[in-house]
TrEMBL record:
It comes from Drosophila pseudoobscura pseudoobscura. Pfam families: CFAP61_N, Pyr_redox_2. It comes from the Eukaryota. The gene is LOC4803845. Residues 4-280 form the Cilia- and flagella-associated protein 61 N-terminal domain. This is Uncharacterized protein isoform X2. The lineage of its organism: Eukaryota, Metazoa, Ecdysozoa, Arthropoda, Hexapoda.
């Protein structure tokens, strides 16, 4: 029969209840579902709940439950292994990892073969499970409705009786039905590919990657097998064969392996130190040591980006350790008739004009602004680059040190060049193919996959990559380097087990908590020297304090657990090896610290979680700290499952706060991030509940205010993992509000009001999205450390508050898109629509299947002259607020103005919308005298009231009258009905000296001198971006991108989104 097996969800409850109570069904296992009410059926934890549907009729014919321990109430969940060893004489190697229990199954009598479909589906999902056990209890007299039937299961299982069983005296005993994986599953046979396999392999490629056949022809596999050159020995082509229903052998999988790898190239261009640099040593054999000069980069800590200390350090590094004052430029040269410019150290003759004289008074201000802008607008400011020498140690052989042959002989890696499966082959079984790869190279421990950025995703590669981890690339001159993924033999063959904390584990856990990434932190919290390191002192102090606090908390928790039997905390080490052996015989790869979570009811105020789940009140746990080697992330479900078996917790939470102490959870990417509520009520002030437990106070654990803090909540409810995402490469240009909302939709595409997916699966985003934006924009949006020195509550400060919908605001406040979305800083050079890639200036090419233009601006000058419009860098004292980065730059520019010209500065503001008044309020509350501000308002063309409300919700003329009166009363100079014409820069430097406006209707021009010009002109596209779009052939109408009703441009692969103009079928760029 043709059956479809899938995970049961909440909408299946009625059908399952009907099936269970149907008189024409058979069943076996736990009796609970037979008498429990429908609403409670899903409240008992099960690892898997599966339903079987008839493909033709879509009717439900079976329901099954599986768990990693038996449904025996009197038996503790983690004691079943001892129970089996005492009661039964079993010879198979059972373990917590390779065994699951088939606890319940109900099926229609005429569809008894549905059991086989259920068993196969479970084995597909659980590649490490070899044995499925069903426990049959002794028979007792009861109504027919409760009588179990094991005859159909016995067709696929072996029956085992307990030690006390006797045919004569004790035959009515408990029994075990054990299904062995390799008896049920079809056998897969691997062998070397032969030339006659060419057609079968090409047919597989035709389905998954037809471009390969188009490029290489119809016989490229046979040609590769029949090669006779020296490289043939390093290429291994393997086919996997299975037997179909007609007992015919079919080619199911094709694998292409290679040992041809340039180790020197990959060690130089990728971060491979933690993987032994892909070489090995042999105990007792001499070794070669080879030095490589490499560079590495990593994102800077947030403490050294936008904080006051970081910017003070930046200002102090401008020129000669600090900026000269205005009067320090006088020189004795030519009898005092010359000025010495601190810019480039040039001497400027005395025959200067009045305009240049005005600039000399602002030279120090210009230098500071230019330097800070140059740094904060450069991607290098946000990364730490380190030049270092690494030692590559490998076994010495017959070849001389440093030669390619010597490195090849010591290689500890092979490459998976390509893998593909037949259309009807279950992709989950490709794990078996990964096992076969390592069996083909028993002397090599690592397997690498190289993915070209130009190649589209292949379904078999996506499946196999679950067992690999990405490798970070080093800075290099290689154009468009391949993406490298790697896995280790232990990831595939090792058994993951959790062990309760023992005294000897304390030092192990402390070492794992420190980690290799902070090796320069000494035990006393100080730092060793780091040659060539560009980490700032502020960053190191911040990281050291966070690490020190986390280690202190973990140490105190371990002490409490070891000394207090009633401790509310629990600590487990995560180990890899043989789960049947003692903890000391397995390698420690991580640990977890947790306690009961009692604040779940507070989450409903800000987060979208199901209510009325009181049955979980005492079964929720909060993860305090979790460390795990990155190679074992794929085992997250096994780890949580084992943790639940040992602790009885069923619902795990991790709370991340940017404001409090930071704790590590290496598995948070494998947990479901809880989406904030899309709509919220007005915020209400709540006090943080007082911490009553003196132990927690002593531990310095963060007490979260769930009503006010911006928290990121991660959850794992022990449901099976399911990935949600797009299959094609999507590139987004811009990180605007519309882009944020769109990215949120992509990341949370699984979420719904009824929680159907989140209550059925552990929902994980897998989006192939790259966002291109200017350097610093993303870092500023997600920065939570900046504290305004003028404001008591930095969250309400203009620099941090976002006057947008909470749906957009929470994208940066209550989630971190950087976990799932790839952000690339840079300026766009051009867009190649034929080859479908975006070229960045002095950088890489980013390929796309779909390109989304979300690079509109909230504010842009619409009447700039051609020279100013096309300039790569605008004047340093010109400000347009289109992102939080621009707000932070404004803050430091204002501070520079107040420091350098405290008595003579002038700030010019241009605009009349709500954002203009917000900015002026910020200026006056952050040290600027109102009398030093000039507000120039452009003329506004008004229509009927309905049109005004439709066009712009940020402008109201009646409200404006009130605001203008307030500004005038405070001493701000107000100039009305003047449109911007141009600005006048210094002859030699990008610095605005004065701005020219034209009055309407008299057309009289007026100029204003200024030290800072802030503009809120309501343009939406920068002239340079407009020129770029024209060059690549995107159709425009003035400053708008023309799109259809689906936001599609004239190129079907390019879309544009922004604030729509209701009067035209166009989209603001």
């Amino acid at each position: 029969m043709d059956y479809h097996v899938r995970t049961a969800d909440i909408y299946d409850l009625d059908a399952i209840d009907t099936l269970i109570h149907s008189p024409t069904v058979k069943w076996f296992g736990n009796i609970r579902p037979k008498y429990v009410e429908k609403a409670k059926l899903f409240k008992c934890y099960q690892t898997y709940r599966m339903v079987v549907l008839h493909r033709e009729t879509s009717s439900m014919i079976a329901y099954a439950e599986f768990r990693n321990y038996p449904a025996i109430d009197a038996l503790p969940s983690d004691c079943w292994l001892e129970w089996l060893s005492v009661r039964y004489c079993l010879t198979m190697p059972l373990s917590f990892l390779n065994t699951m229990f088939f606890n319940f199954c109900v099926y229609k009598s005429e569809n008894d073969d549905a059991i086989a479909s259920i068993l196969r589906e479970l084995f597909y999902r659980e590649n490490r499970v070899w044995f499925l056990i069903t426990v049959k209890n002794p028979s007792i007299a009861q109504p027919t409705y409760y009588v179990e039937t094991f005859d159909d299961l016995e067709k696929y299982a072996d029956v085992y009786y307990p030690r006390e069983f006797s045919v004569e005296n004790n035959f009515n005993t408990q029994e075990l039905y054990i299904v062995y994986r390799f008896k049920l599953m079809r056998k897969i046979t691997y062998r070397k590919a032969l030339p006659e396999d060419n057609d079968d392999i090409v047919a597989i490629h035709e389905y998954e990657y037809p471009e390969m056949r188009e490029e290489l022809g119809d016989f490229y596999i046979a040609e590769e097998i029949l090669r006779t050159d020296s490289g043939r020995e390093k290429s291994f082509l393997i086919v996997a064969e299975t037997e179909n229903d007609c007992q015919e052998i079919e080619t199911a999988v094709f694998i292409w392996l290679s040992t041809d790898i340039d180790i020197r190239f990959y060690v130089t261009n990728y971060e491979l130190e933690s993987f032994g640099n892909l070489v090995k040593t042999i105990e007792g054999q001499s070794v070669y040591v080879e030095m490589f000069n490499v560079s590495s980069v990593q994102a800077k800590n947030a403490a050294c980006l936008f904080t006051s200390d970081a910017l003070d350090d930046l200002s102090a590094m401008t020129i000669l350790g600090g900026l000269q004052k205005n009067d320090s430029g006088l020189s004795v040269y030519s009898g005092g008739k010359a000025k010495v410019s601190s810019i480039n150290g040039r001497i400027i003759e005395a025959n200067y004009t009045s305009g240049s004289n005005r600039f000399f008074m602002r030279e120090s201000l210009f230098s500071k602004m230019k330097y800070i802008i140059g740094k904060l607008s450069n991607s290098e400011y946000y990364i730490s680059k380190e030049l270092k020498s690494i030692s590559v140690v490998y076994s010495a052989g017959m070849h001389p040190r440093g030669s390619e042959l010597a490195l090849d002989a010591a290689s500890n890696v092979f490459v998976l060049k390509y893998i593909a499966a037949r259309k009807d082959f279950p992709l989950e079984r490709l794990f078996n193919s990964v096992v076969a790869m390592f069996c083909a190279f028993p002397d090599r421990d690592y397997c690498m996959m190289l993915i070209s950025k130009e190649t589209k995703s292949i379904r078999s590669h996506v499946e196999v990559l679950k067992y690999f981890m990405p490798v970070a690339s080093r800075p290099s001159e290689v154009a468009n380097p391949e993406e490298v993924y790697i896995t280790h033999r232990s990831t595939i063959f090792g058994e993951i087990s959790l062990y309760e904390l023992q005294k000897e584990d304390v030092a192990v856990i402390q070492a794992l908590a420190v980690g290799p990434s902070v090796s320069d932190v000494k035990s006393d919290g100080s730092f060793g020297s780091s040659t060539g390191s560009s980490f700032s002192y502020t960053s190191k102090i911040n990281e050291s304090a966070e690490l020190k606090n986390e280690i202190e908390v973990i140490t105190a928790v371990m002490k409490d657990v070891l000394e207090n039997e009633l401790s509310e905390f629990a600590v487990y080490t995560i180990r890899c090896g043989n789960s049947a052996k003692a903890a000391r015989e397995n390698t420690a790869i991580g640990f977890v610290v947790l306690r009961q979570f009692r604040s779940h009811h507070h989450l409903h105020y800000h987060y979208h979680l199901p209510r009325h789940q009181n049955y979980l009140n005492f079964l929720r746990a909060e993860i305090i700290s979790l460390r795990l080697h990155p190679l074992f992330m794929i085992s997250s479900d096994l780890i949580f499952r084992d943790l639940a078996m040992k602790t009885s917790y069923r619902d795990y939470y991790f709370v991340s706060s940017p404001n409090g102490h930071q704790f590590t959870n290496d598995l948070k990417k494998m947990m479901t991030v809880v989406e904030p509520n899309p709509m919220k009520k007005s915020p209400t002030t709540f006090r943080v509940p007082k911490e009553e437990d003196t132990l927690k106070e002593r531990l310095n654990l963060t007490v979260h205010n769930f009503y006010q803090d911006h928290l990121i909540i991660y959850r794992h409810k022990l449901n099976p993992t399911k990935w949600f995402g797009n299959s094609e490469r999507l590139v987004v240009i811009g990180f605007t509000d519309v882009a944020k909302a769109f990215l949120r939709q992509l990341v949370f595409q699984w979420n719904s009001k009824d929680h159907q997916n989140s209550e059925t699966y552990t929902c994980l985003p897998r989006v192939q999205v790259t966002v291109i934006t200017m350097p610093g924009v993303v870092e500023a949006e997600f920065d939570g450390i900046f504290q305004c020195p003028y404001c008591c509550n930095s969250g309400n400060c203009y620099l941090s508050f976002q006057n947008v919908s909470c749906y957009v605001r929470d994208v940066t406040f209550r989630m971190d898109l950087r976990h799932w979305v790839h952000f690339v800083p840079g300026r766009i050079d051009f867009i190649n629509r034929e080859k479908k890639f975006v070229k960045l200036e002095n950088s890489c090419e980013i390929y796309y299947d779909t390109l989304l233009l979300a690079c509109y601006k909230d504010f842009a000058m619409r009447t700039l002259n051609s020279r100013s419009a096309m300039a790569k860098n605008l004047p340093c004292n010109f400000v347009e607020i289109n992102s939080r980065l621009k707000k932070l730059l404004l803050f430091y520019k204002v501070r520079a103005v107040l420091e350098e010209m405290p008595r003579t500065y002038k700030i010019l503001v241009y605009g009349s919308n709500l954002q203009t008044y917000e900015c002026i309020a910020f200026l006056t509350s952050h040290g600027v005298e109102p009398s030093r501000i000039v507000l120039v308002q452009p003329r506004r063309i008004t229509g009927i009231t309905a049109e005004e409300k439709l066009k712009n919700p940020y402008w109201d003329k009646n409200l404006q009258y009130i605001l203008d009166d307030i500004l005038i009363d405070s001493g701000i100079e107000l100039v009305e009905d003047h449109d911007f014409v141009r600005w006048v820069e210094d002859d030699s430097f990008h610095f605005i000296m004065e701005v020219v406006f034209e009055h309407f209707p008299s057309k009289k021009q007026t100029s204003f001198e200024c030290d800072l010009f802030i503009a809120f002109d309501e343009g939406h596209m920068a002239p340079r971006r407009k020129k770029l779009l024209k060059q690549c052939g995107i159709q425009l109408r003035k400053d708008d991108i023309l799109v259809n009703e689906d936001f599609q441009t004239n190129d079907p692969n390019i879309y544009a989104v922004a604030d729509a103009h209701p009067e035209s079928n166009s989209q603001a760029g």
